[in-house]
Design brief:
By secondary structure, the chain is mainly α. The chain folds into two domains: 1-57; 65-125, no CATH class. It has five helices and no strands. Helix 3 crosses helix 4. The radius of gyration is 31 Å and the shape is elongated.
């Protein structure tokens, strides 16, 4: 009998907790939404900090030029390819065109001579 009484008390406590939480949620549905919004703001700020950090590593003219996120990603990809060409060719001046010539081994005379943004900027400075 004692077990039954304890069970009833437990059941009553659970029912009162549920009704309190239901009334709380109906009064303030914004609390969970605020938490979600705060997490999203934090995530967005984190992504923006990462883009700003990446932006500082990409050389551009002028240096303080405003870039969109997609421009930052495209320039970063291009700059990584440029640095890869510098490492492979061992040449700092126009390594990308040397790399392409070496890659195709002059098998095709129709290979277009391309120059990357960073090789062009270096050539313009000289």
């Amino acid at each position: 009998m004692d077990y039954y009484t304890n069970y009833q008390q437990l059941d009553m406590n659970l029912n009162s907790r549920v009704s309190q939480s239901e009334s709380d949620s109906s009064n303030s549905p914004a609390k969970p939404r605020q938490a979600v919004n705060a997490r999203e703001r934090c995530r967005t700020q984190s992504v923006n900090v990462a883009f700003n950090t990446l932006r500082t590593l990409i050389p551009t003219e002028p240096h303080d030029r405003k870039l969109s996120k997609i421009e930052i990603l495209r320039l970063a990809k291009s700059y990584i390819s440029h640095l890869d060409a510098v490492i492979i060719t061992g040449n700092v001046e126009r390594p990308c065109s040397l790399y392409l010539t070496h890659q195709y081994d002059d098998k095709s005379s129709n290979v277009r001579t391309t120059i990357c943004t960073f090789c062009a900027n270096a050539a313009n400075k000289n």
